[in-house]
Design goal:
Elements (H helix, E strand, L loop, with lengths): L1 E2 L6 E7 L2 E2 L2 E3 L28 E7 L6 E7 L9 E8 L2 E7 L9 E5 L1 E6 L3 E11 L1 E3 L5 H11 L4 E9 L4 E2 L15 E3 L10 E10 L7 E2 L12 E8 L1 H7 L38 E5 L5 E5 L1
Parallel strand pairs: 5-18, 12-15
Antiparallel strand pairs: 1-2, 2-3, 2-6, 4-5, 6-9, 7-8, 7-13, 10-11, 11-16, 13-18, 14-17, 19-20
Length: about 300
């Protein structure tokens, strides 16, 4: 469970096959891997002090397993707007959104995103679920244009990001839920060239099955408190396989004689500690290890 200490009562958890994913602090040597955000990227009160409300956690993406993102607002959450809303982005694409029903501002609210629905009354409907999958690499020669496109896309992959917003009161929209009839299905493949030097080793795909027609729904219109529609908090989860996570975890050294039980480090982000260390395993052969003079290591895709 990731929290931001300046906003008590708000948390985001990634659950994999029904269980909370183990979370790990953003490793010091990977400080550049998280999304770059500045003070002007947030909707914050003028008197806000301390760290930016952007928490970063590493989680294990186990190929083949389903996951969902769970957003919880507790009764003690200090409301600034009329209510709150959020948007989830997976690998740079919007993957879900919701907002707290304003009629119950003091209640606990839980929202879950595990996929989406597509279809129409004529052709039927399908429910799509998010899953982790091993990254598929191709050794085919690609054009310079495709190489630039894939390299740009890869920069957004490996991330689940939840942006949380202050919302104003708004009216109801009846039957507001619409479904994409021909959604773009996630099943990315990248060339070896595009991922040269990347720390990406798994992706999110979608699997689906037919369902009965969903019941009509009504929901609130989106009416941001902030004119620029900026979030007041950002929860970022960087997912990697266990093999690569282990390689990115700080290693013991002779100066500090660290044990596996205290191998967590922060990287200037808010929140609480991760749930524990990742056991040591072999780094995949497709990564080259670079050791700096201070003993720190970086890993490059071969």
């Amino acid at each position: 469970m990731a929290i931001i200490t300046s906003f008590p009562g708000l948390s985001v958890t990634v659950e994999v096959e029904g269980k909370a994913a183990s979370e790990f602090h953003h490793p010091i040597r990977e400080c550049g891997a998280s999304t770059k955000l500045e003070r002007e990227d947030f909707d914050l009160p003028p008197d806000h002090k301390g760290r930016l409300p952007h928490v970063v956690r590493y989680i294990e993406g186990t190929p083949g397993e389903k996951f969902e993102v769970v957003i919880v607002k507790e009764p003690n959450f200090p409301e600034r707007g009329h209510h709150l809303g959020y948007k989830l982005y997976i690998d740079g694409k919007e993957a879900g959104k919701d907002q707290h029903h304003p009629g119950y501002p003091a209640s606990q609210w839980t929202s879950r995103v595990s996929g989406f629905i597509s279809g129409n009354p004529t052709n039927g409907y399908r429910e799509h679920s998010f899953r982790f999958k091993d990254l598929q690499l191709t050794d085919e020669n690609i054009s310079d244009e495709d190489l630039r496109r894939q390299t740009s896309l890869a920069a957004d992959y490996g991330r689940l990001i939840v942006y949380v917003y202050n919302m104003n009161e708004s009216g109801w929209k009846h039957s507001c839920r619409t479904y994409d009839e021909t959604p773009e299905i996630r099943d990315p493949k990248f060339s070896e060239q595009a991922l040269k030097g990347s720390m990406l080793d798994c992706v999110v795909i979608e699997t689906s099955h037919p369902i009965d027609p969903p019941a009509p729904e009504k929901c609130r219109e989106w009416n941001h408190s902030d004119p620029a529609k900026l979030p007041f908090a950002v929860f970022e989860f960087i997912y990697r396989t266990r093999t690569l996570l282990s390689a990115m975890t700080p290693q013991p050294d002779t100066k500090h004689s660290a044990s596996e039980n205290n191998l967590h480090n922060t990287c200037g982000t808010a929140g609480e500690r991760g749930s524990g260390p990742m056991p040591a395993v072999e780094l995949r052969q497709r990564y080259k290890v670079h050791r700096a003079g201070d003993g720190r290591e970086t890993y490059e895709r071969l």
